[in-house]
Write a structure and sequence with these properties.
- The structure is a single chain.
- The protein is α+β, with helices and mostly antiparallel strands and 172 residues long.
- Strand 1 and strand 2 form a beta hairpin.
- The model has no long low-confidence stretch (mean pLDDT 78).
- The termini are far apart.
- It folds into 2 domains: 50 residues; 114 residues, LytTr DNA-binding domain (OB fold (Dihydrolipoamide Acetyltransferase, E2P)).
- It has a 5-stranded antiparallel sheet with strand order 5-4-3-7-6, with no helix packed on it. Strands 8-9-10 form a 3-stranded antiparallel sheet, with no helix packed on it. Strands 1-2 form a two-stranded antiparallel ribbon.
- The protein has 3 helices and 10 strands.
- It is elongated.
Length: 172
């Protein structure tokens, strides 16, 4: 075989190999783009589900490996303890929620929930009585859950900054 024919045959083979390889790479890149788009769509859907609408009437809470919808009216209070957020119901069930008190405060209706201090958000239906302490602080006692006010190192005092807003909230 002459050198020119060999070179022409080799060039043609390389050209067809490169075209085939280029088409494979293009197809693979398109497949990866579609997978990536599908992943982005899934993530957006998960984020939308994780962010309930402001006008929602319930929160999703986790119990073991199950997710349960919990009606706002079933929530007695929400507390923060050791960097965890707990939702406690009127019937004394307790759930962990993977959101901060700040995030939950922004989601909950202000007519029925009030952040009394850095550790507690209370439902208006859970407020049993309020005691004005000699120090000028307000101590909140919750209905059917008096033990919460006696927990070690935890008090249900209304912070001074929220004192007047709390009284106005109760008076609505």
């Amino acid at each position: 075989m002459s050198k020119e024919i060999y070179t022409a045959t080799a060039a043609a083979a390389v050209g067809s190999f490169d075209k085939g390889r280029g088409q494979e790479e293009t197809a693979r890149a398109e497949e990866e783009r579609q997978d990536s788009n599908a992943n982005i769509t899934r993530l957006v859907e998960q984020l939308l589900q994780a962010q309930p609408a402001r006008n929602s009437s319930r929160l999703l809470v986790q119990q073991g490996n199950k997710m349960l919808p919990l009606a706002y009216d079933d929530i007695a209070f929400i507390s923060s303890e050791n960097k965890l957020t707990y939702i406690t119901t009127h019937d004394d069930k307790r759930y962990i929620k993977n959101r901060s008190l700040d995030e939950l405060e922004a989601l909950l209706p202000r007519e029925t929930f009030f952040r009394i201090n850095r550790q507690f958000i209370v439902h208006i239906g859970a407020v049993g009585s309020i005691l004005l302490q000699q120090s000028g602080k307000l101590k909140v006692y919750l209905k059917s859950l008096p033990a919460i006010s006696k927990e070690e190192g935890r008090d249900t005092f209304v912070s001074r900054e929220r004192f007047s807003d709390f009284k106005a909230w109760l008076g609505k």
